[in-house]
């Protein structure tokens, strides 16, 4: 399958000069701590292309060969699998600071489509160069291992989510996870926009659209959340945690 690539110099690529990893606001999410200036220059030399995608555009498609990994600079994306009968199964949602393309490292080809849910920008990192550099820089190799480990833990969490949780628990877990991810990136943990549709949330959680709408309405009636179109406010995070049986925290 074709891997849609925007070449340097195209209309989507002009006017966006290279921004060094060393000066990027997302550095702490992507790179290991303690890497020195000389090694940072070597990392910078790898990330020589930034790519912009419009909403609905594919970053890569299932079956495409592994060429690069991608770090999201801005925007939100989804990974999904298209079944033979035309049904789409959402496998994950990704936001700035996330590293994409790891699914292809084992077999050399991507397992999922990855699509922009809004206008996005990514840093393209040639995998062959990253692989070589990570062998020479142990902190970078360890960071890649940590990122891949997080992906394994996330996938295991999704399996538990789909296998053992009720609809209310699944949606509560989803909202709390989004809250934590926004907070990690320096944004509000209680107010954010949902870039994905309710259908996409349902596909990810293994729930029908009607169930997602019903549970969201129930949460809103109970004063747990407020929803205005795509804007969501978590009014009572402790109630969400209680639905999951989690211990209360002091961060509200």
Task: Tell me what the structure shows.
With about 250 residues, the protein is α+β, with helices and mostly antiparallel strands. The protein folds into 2 domains: about 20-160, Jelly Rolls; about 165-245, Orthogonal Bundle (Arc Repressor Mutant, subunit A). About 40% of the residues lie in helices and about 20% in strands. The chain contains 8 helices and 11 strands. It has a 4-stranded antiparallel sheet. It has a 4-stranded antiparallel sheet with strand order 2-7-4-5. A 3-stranded antiparallel sheet has the order 9-11-10. Strand 4 (about 75-80) and strand 5 form a beta hairpin. It starts with about 25 loop residues before the first helix and ends in an 8-residue tail after the last helix. Residues about 1-20 and about 245-250 have low confidence and may be disordered.
Strand order of the largest sheet: 1-8-3-6
Query: Number of helical runs?
Result: 8
CATH architecture title of the largest domain:
Sandwich
Low-confidence parts lasting 5 or more residues at pLDDT below 50?
1-18, 247-252
Q: Taking Cα atoms only, what radius of gyration do you get, to the nearest Å?
A: 19 Å
Count the E strands: 11
Order of helices and strands: HHEEEEEEEEHHHEHHEEH
Mean pLDDT: 83
Q: Provide the structure class.
A: alpha+beta
Distance between the amino and carboxyl termini: 46 Å
CATH superfamily of the largest domain: Jelly Rolls
**Quaternary arrangement of the chains shown?**
single chain
The CATH topology of the largest domain: Jelly Rolls
How would a textbook summarize the main sheet?
Answer: 4 strands, antiparallel
How much of the polypeptide forms β-strand, as a percent range? 15-25%
Q: What's the domain count?
A: 2
CATH class term of the largest domain: Mainly Beta
Helix content: 25-40%
Shape summary: globular
């Amino acid at each position: 399958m074709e891997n849609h690539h925007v070449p340097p110099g195209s209309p989507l690529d002009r006017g966006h000069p290279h921004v060094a990893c060393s000066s990027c606001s997302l550095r702490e999410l992507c790179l290991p701590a303690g890497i020195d200036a000389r090694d940072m220059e070597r990392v910078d030399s790898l990330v020589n292309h930034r790519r912009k995608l419009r909403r609905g555009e594919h970053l890569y498609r299932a079956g495409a060969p592994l060429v690069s990994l991608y770090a999201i600079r801005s925007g939100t994306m989804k990974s999904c699998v298209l079944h033979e009968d035309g049904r789409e199964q959402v496998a994950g949602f990704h936001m700035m600071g996330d590293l994409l393309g790891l699914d292809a490292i084992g077999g050399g080809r991507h397992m999922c489509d990855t699509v922009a849910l809004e206008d996005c920008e990514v840093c393209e990192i040639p995998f062959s160069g990253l692989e070589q550099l990570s062998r020479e820089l142990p902190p970078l190799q360890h960071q890649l291992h940590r990122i891949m480990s997080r992906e394994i833990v996330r996938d295991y969490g999704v399996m538990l989510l789909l296998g053992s949780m009720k609809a209310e628990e699944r949606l509560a877990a989803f909202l709390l996870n989004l809250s934590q991810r926004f907070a990690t990136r320096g944004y509000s943990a209680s107010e954010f926009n949902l870039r994905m549709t309710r259908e996409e949330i349902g596909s990810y959680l293994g729930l029908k659209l009607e169930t997602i709408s019903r549970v969201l309405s129930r949460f809103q009636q109970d004063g747990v959340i407020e929803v205005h179109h795509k804007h969501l406010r978590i009014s009572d995070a402790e109630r969400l945690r209680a639905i999951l049986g989690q211990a209360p925290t002091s961060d509200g």
